[in-house]
Amino acid sequence: MTAITPSSLLAMRSAILQQNSALQKAAGSAGVGGASPIDGVKPTTDATSFAGAMKSALEQVNGLQANAETATTSYERGETTDIAQVMLAREHASVGFQATLQVRNKLLSAYKDIMSMPV
């Protein structure tokens, strides 16, 4: 498992911004002409890379939480005595979960905004 890095978070942010700009362009051209812009829209690799990035990020967060649980259990059994490593693993899992929660909140907010747009 690879760790969540600032560069991977920036890549996910970039993918979100690209999707947002594509949606804004589609919504902006909807009022021009008689045809719906959605008729000609084809899936792009950006959509699949975004989905892949989200799946990868969720797997990383899951791995961090499993690692923290393993470290905690190991400390409780007396197998390790390094409380700093246990706390560090728990904080990594907590920060990863909080970041995932914030991304979820932003996606939900964007979905609500899109759904409230007049057609």
Automatic annotation (TrEMBL):
Q: Which Pfam families match?
A: FliE (PF02049)
Q: Mind listing the UniProt keywords for this protein, alphabetically?
A: Bacterial flagellum, Cell projection, Cilium, Flagellum
- What InterPro entries does the annotation carry? FliE
Top-level taxonomic group: Bacteria
**Family annotation (HAMAP family):** FliE
Write down the NCBIfam families for this protein, in alphabetical order. Answer: fliE (TIGR00205)
- The protein's name: Flagellar hook-basal body complex protein FliE
- The gene designation is fliE
